[in-house]
Input
Amino acid sequence: MSLLKMFILTMVMTLQSFVVGDIHADIYNGLKNSNSKSLSKHFASTLSLSIDKEESVYSKFQAELVLTDFFRTNKTTELKHVQKVTGNPNNKYLIYNLKTAKKSYRIFVKLIDNNGNFNISELRIE
Output
């Protein structure tokens, strides 16, 4: 492989990880601040959303409304990033522990590559 090709490949991988890092920060801040609007800007056009084992596929707008309702009764008091799995270049997984005044939740986020931009395709709050 030529030096130029290796340089270009390295730059593409670096930029891709930078983009995922920005999304990661937005997701973390959205969860920490109980802000469904902030999270929804990274939703895929449709996504699988599960809250306490009630799962459905929603449009971006519908999922935002469901999350708004969840956060209305479950304000985040503490958030801890547990794990980030990036083995597959097309899928990324983020896991958080979220505490509210009422209950603790484990949050699973699946990001998919959509033409170079990562979007949330699945969000589980258990």
Q: What stands out?
A: The chain has a mean pLDDT of 87. The first strand starts at residue 43 and ends at 51. Strands lie at 43-51, 54-59, 76-85, 91-100, 104-114, 117-125.
